[in-house]
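Lab notebook, bench 4. We co-purified these components, and the gel suggests they stay together. Before we commit to crystallization screens, I want a quick structural picture of the whole thing.
Request: model the full complex, all chains together.
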Amino acid sequence: MVRVELTPHLYRFFPDLEGLEIEVAVGSVAEVIRAIDNAAPGFSDYILDEQGALRRHVMVSVNDNILIDRKTLSDRVGDGGTLYIFQALTGG
Amino acid sequence: MSNTLILGTRKGTVIFDRQDSAWNPRPILHAGIPVCYAARDPRDGTLWASLDHGHWGPKLSRSRDGGNSWEDLSSLKYPLGARHIVQYLPTPDFDPQTPSGQPEYRDATVLKIWTLAFGAASQPGRLYAGTIPGGLFVSDDGGDTWELNRPLWNHETRGGDLFSGDATSETRWGGTPASVDYGVFEPGIHSIVVDPHDPAHIHVAVSSAGVLESHDGGQSWTGRNRGMLNDYMPDPHAEWGHDPHFITACPSQPEHLWQQNHCGVFYSADGAANWRKVSAPDVGVHFGFPVAVDAQDGATAWVIPERSDMARMAIGDGLCVARTEDGGQSWQLFRTGLPQDNAYDLVLRHGLDIAGDCLCFGTTTGNVYLSEDRGETWQCLGNNFPPVYSVRFG
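Here is the predicted assembly.
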């Protein structure tokens, strides 16, 4: 299984995820995000654009490694791994 | 007279209610989220806010209970296969030979929902949205679903139908500086004008392309830039490449259109078939962003003059509002109630609105001013709001 850690900022839009321990099946980052979307419909629209690419100011890492494939999110998250979704420092 | 004012600001939506002749702001909504446009649908009272999230992508937010509760929508998306020719910011180090003079294509994604417009009373549920990178979207179910207007997206001036292949012509649409914040240099649609007498008659304004008109509900579009001047380009009379800041039309005389532009104030009395420059630089009426037109008299309009496109600030460090009642042949400047010292405000393209004799504008410095006598005297509604992107009476 894969554990998912979210920036708390996303709880504003998906309050049902707050306090949950999110665990989904092993797969690519795209598949992991799709699994979260099944639990929280609309979630992927906040992380990905309509082409399925990571939004410009969103950061994703697999364990300690920043996502490489921002376009199709093909990086794998192995069993026991953690996917982190957080926001890039930007704005004012 | 309207009793509601809706502000889109850098830090959320601000709604004012008029009670006993006083305009009172409610606590900010969408707190902390940039709202680039907010308005009330006059047909059913639905409130709309365009959320310009820094991280999470553009979203529309909708309230059907007067602003007490809001529902965020992610339904406005480009369809699979929507592409555009990539534009490049002409920075000093830009090499036009890279990449080899051939068009480069990019899959389209919504970067900003810049404006919303409502259909006629006879079209319940019809909404329009203008976006960066230059797509016009249409909804017929109150925003639950949206469809890209393909005739405009596939317009020959933008390279033709890229859904079915590569470009058949060059794009004549340039990027808008407003897109640079999103890491691109692409066009944007910021003005959508629906003729209340004929809802199939629509004008849109595109930065940086110009004005286009449809007489058939958006099935076909024709450029309407005759008379425009583009004095920062090698050919100031070129048909395309204009950067209209905002266009609007008189609701009861829709053949009267106004445009504020980099290169002056422009007026058309024939449905945008011909534009006429009506600036009065000697009194400061030339550069600015918004323009408002009277609901009954198409020759009466208001602008907020600013100091040149290089400076973009109040002229002489004092705010004024200019009004014409003769189609721009003459202008009166009004300053009563507006700061005349140490004022550096800029009013953006959606930052001015009119309802009857009432006008209101909000500035990038967070000041909001309202007039109840057709712009002649002003009262301040507050000085400490976030930078104001849009002002609309509800």
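The first helix of chain B runs from residue 150 to 153. Worth comparing against the SEC data before the next meeting. The interface with chain A takes residues 53-57, 59, 72, 74, 77-78, 107, 109-110, 182-183 of chain B (CB under 8 Å).
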